[in-house]
Amino acid sequence: MPERILVIRTDRIGDVVLSTPVLTALRRSFPSAFIAMMVRPYTRDVVSGHPHADEIVLDDRPGLNSGIAGFVRLLRMVRRHRFDMALLLHPSFRLALLCFLAGIRFRVGTGYRAYSFLFSRRVYHHRKKSDRHELDLNLDLARAVGARLDQVAFFLHIPDPDRISTESRLRSHGLSSGSAFMVIHPGSGGSAMDWPLSGFAALGDRILGEMGLPVVITGNKAESPLVDRLCSMMYREPLRLDGALSIKELLALLSRARLLVANSTGPLHMAVAVGCPVVGLYCPLAACAPVRWGPYGYPASVLTPPLPPCRKCTQARCPSFNCMELITGDQVFAKVKDQLLNRAV
Questions:
Q1: For residue 136, pLDDT beyond 50
Q2: Closest by alpha carbon to 296, among 39, 7, 88, 20?
């Protein structure tokens, strides 16, 4: 029976969201264990306040934990916690070596890697070639140590001050408490091929004009130029909150929204986690396949170009580039109406 467990997921926001059910699986199976989760600093607020995480451990690889000295600093900190089990949900040689040198007795990771000998228990699946969802693949590692989970639950925490500040922002833009709205998140941080901005602009105009539903545009600070271009293409004025929201405030916004329309990106998984219906726009790249990265439990919420899966995007040499243009505005608008109707029912 493990007493001190470390769950490691040090990549992007969506990946961390899809890893949080592992915390619940471990807590329900090992109720008295101390459970910590290691993440990057910028994803900390995805996990902060989670009822099944006792502590958050930060791996600031570009900063405090960079280089050999930073690695040693992180190693000393992990050693002080005296973990007896580590689950590496997104392993790397650096993290596998960290757990080995930290003296963690049970180190669980995937097989088929050159450094898999550093794990004491290996789960053999090729994630890149898998036809299963990333969340289920994460849970496989928890099951490998005897954890069970009857029902997937995210339990992302939204503090009251963040709900209040989000409501205040909405009111300042003319949306009263309880007013209905939907969200468009046009960026993806480069994680996938995106639907054209012209499509998002026309969709926003149509939702505002034909449905009378206010549209909120979100994005991080780096995506503000993208949102500038999007808004310049629209005839009707949306509500812009790009660069204005923390992760907790974005969660609060999505928990209030009627619907989110987005590319394959972290906020889409955040929306699913807080119960917001989504329409996800996915490219045909195998590495981005919705069977693995789509909205968990809602495969009918996805639209993809009518093309077979491709292994690598060759862009200029591809006869269908940009293939995301093959997803029509009518298709997306119909999917939006369908999702809103299902929500109303």
A1: yes
A2: 20
Task: Please state the pTM of the whole predicted model.
Answer: 0.94
**Model confidence at 151: pLDDT above 90:** no
Indicate the burial class of 126 (C-beta count within 10 angstroms; 0-12, 13-18, 19 or more): exposed
Is 34 contained in some domain?
Answer: yes
Strand-pair category, 260-263 with 55-58:
unpaired
**Quick one: tokens of 23?**
């915390």
| DSSP for 154-175, written as a single string | ------HHHHHHHHHHHHHTT-
What CA–CA distance (Å, rounded) separates 325 from 203? Answer: 13
Residues 69, 165, single domain; the answer is no
Using an 8 Å Cβ cutoff, are 122 and 110 in contact?
yes
Q: CA-CA distance, 136 to 18, in Å (whole number)?
A: 9
CATH number at residue 255: 3.40.50.2000
Model pLDDT for residues 61-83, shown as the tens digit of each residue? 999 999 999 999 999 999 999 99
Task: Give exposure, 74-92, as e/b (b: 16+ Cβ within 10 Å).
Answer: bbebbeeeebbbbbbbbbb
DSSP string spanning 112-152? SSTTGGG-SEEE---GGG--S-HHHHHHHHHHTTT---SS-
Query: At 335, is the pLDDT very low, low, confident or very high (cuts 50, 70, 90)?
Result: very high
Amino acid present at 113: R
Question: What single-letter DSSP state applies at residue 286?
Answer: G
Give how far the C-alpha of residue 213 lies from the chain's centroid of Cα atoms, to the nearest Å: 26
Structural domain span for residue 85: 4-143
pLDDT at position 130? 76
68 token code pair? 């050999």
Half-sphere exposure of 266 (CA within 13 A, CB side): 20
Shared-domain flag, residues 178 and 74? no
* Cα distance between residue 80 and residue 61, in whole Å: 19
